[in-house]
Amino acid sequence: MDVERHAFHTAMLFGRRWNIVAEDSDRARYHHVLGWATVQLDDTAATWDIRNLHLDPFSPANRHNEVAPLQTLAGPGRLAALIGDANMLGINHPEPDWTPLPAHLRAAQLLPHTEAAADADRRAIRLLQNAGFVDVADRFGDQQPTGGFGPSDVPRRQDLFLLSPALAEAAVDYQVHDEPVTRGFSDHCAVSITLDIARLSLAGPR
Fold first, then answer.
1. d(CA 21, CA 37)
2. pTM (2 decimals)?
3. Beta strand pairing call for 134-135 and 79-85
């Protein structure tokens, strides 16, 4: 990451039970960065595809281009997770009131030629939804905002856990943790999910 511009690093941390088959990052095709890893849990044969997203905050069209290659990860039987700051609304997240957002930033969120401060550009998230990805927050009916808590910003749910259909079967809990915001560490909340591996028919013996 460009620390001077963003003042943070992006990282994926795996415990001892995980075997990292491959890992890398892609800064060439992403406005910020995409971190990725292919991993295996314990002695199981199934591979998991993990993508750590930080999508373009300024261009809905570019966000669409950034996520387009990820559609195949939702294929039958694949264990895949897209995690991170998507800079777009999650699946079925209610339309925020965009009025407080400065005019020069509204185009980064709204459909082209929108006259009123409404109608978020949801093309990128719908692309992933149509591919089969499941938004864990939406699955649990939790529409709490996770970001947009800075000055003149609009609180909204944009820090996402999107799981392939096979992996979504294991999701048993979703939590938003507001300590980073309330304690002044960040303008984003932290988000966590819990997966019950026993629910995965492809996990194999432990």
1. 7
2. 0.91
3. unpaired
Residue 5 φ/ψ region, left for φ over 0, alpha for ψ in the -120 to 50 degree band, beta for the rest: alpha
User: Exposure string (b/e) for 140-167, b if CB count within 10 Å is 16 or more?
Assistant: eebeebbbbbeeeebbbbbbbbbbbbbb
Q: How many residues are present in the chain?
A: 206
Distance, CA of 109 to CA of 87 (rounded, Å)? 8
- The CA distance from 114 to 107, in Å, is 9
> How many helices (H) does the chain have, and how many strands (E)?
7, 8
% of the chain with per-residue pLDDT over 90: 73
Q: Using one digit for the tens of pLDDT, what is the confidence trace for 94-122? A: 999 998 999 888 889 998 876 555 789 99
Across the chain, mean pLDDT equals 90
